[in-house]
Amino acid sequence: MARYTGPKSRIARKLGEAIFGPDKVLTRRNFPPGQQGANKRRKTSEYGTQLREKQKAKYTYGVLERQFRNLFEKASRTKGVKGEVLLQLLESRLDNVVYRLGMAKTRAAARQLVSHKHITVDGQVVNIPSYSVKAGQIIAVREKDKSMEVIADSLAGFNHSKYAWLEWDENSKSGKFLHRPERADIPENIKEQLIVELYSK
């Protein structure tokens, strides 16, 4: 199962944002990596700006190039604003939904929970992080894994009312995917229109 396994702080410094979560390195060295990173004053081209936004979206959601291209093509065939639909498809990924429900502290941790068969969808174990969750489906921690310390720690004090498109049931430790989120409800700092412009060339 392909995923990015390289240095995360380097990518965060390159993009100028803590896209993988709190990063001490980025706090200390908030300039691009490399010998000339701190002194670089080169103007970024239009293409460079668009590419940077695509890379930011890819790394944020943990998606590789081919997967991202396939999602964009699917968004292009779907009715609606292309860039917004692309983000909705990314938000609908099972690993992202597990993360949004607070079952894991990061998307990488959520991906691991899914891959290791700790998560069920409508009562059935699903171990595919890229699984597209549909409206009305119930995402839950597998019964025998509900006492796992890593899940309990992540859920402790998590604000489940943050996302209007998800509904949490504390008793069953499960969440319902109500509908795909509106763009205004997606907190990620991504300029999706730049991604659409990049792929439209």
Give an overview of the whole structure.
- By secondary structure, the chain is α+β, with helices and mostly antiparallel strands.
- The chain has two domains: 8-89 and 188-199, Ribosomal protein S4/S9, N-terminal domain (Ribosomal Protein S4 Delta 41, Chain A, domain 1, Orthogonal Bundle), CATH 1.10.1050; 93-179, RNA-binding S4 domain (Structural Genomics Hypothetical 15.5 Kd Protein In mrcA-pckA Intergenic Region, Chain A, Roll), CATH 3.10.290.10.
- The protein has nine helices and five strands.
- It has a five-stranded antiparallel beta sheet, with helices on one face.
Q: Sum up the overall morphology in one term.
A: globular
Number of strands: 5
CATH third-tier fold name of the largest domain: Ribosomal Protein S4 Delta 41, Chain A, domain 1
> What is the helix/strand order?
HHHHHHHEEEHEEH
Question: Segments where pLDDT lies below 50 for 5+ residues?
Answer: none
Structural class: alpha+beta
- Biggest sheet: strands side by side, in what order? 2-1-3-5-4
Number of helices: 9
In short:
By secondary structure, the protein is an alpha+beta fold. It has helices at residues 8-15, 24-28, 46-61, 65-77, 82-91, 94-100, 107-115, 149-155, 192-199; strands at residues 119-121, 124-125, 138-141, 166-169, 174-177.
Please tag this protein with its features.
201 residues, alpha+beta, Ribosomal Protein S4 Delta 41, Chain A, domain 1, Structural Genomics Hypothetical 15.5 Kd Protein In mrcA-pckA Intergenic Region, Chain A, 5-stranded antiparallel beta sheet, 9 helices, globular
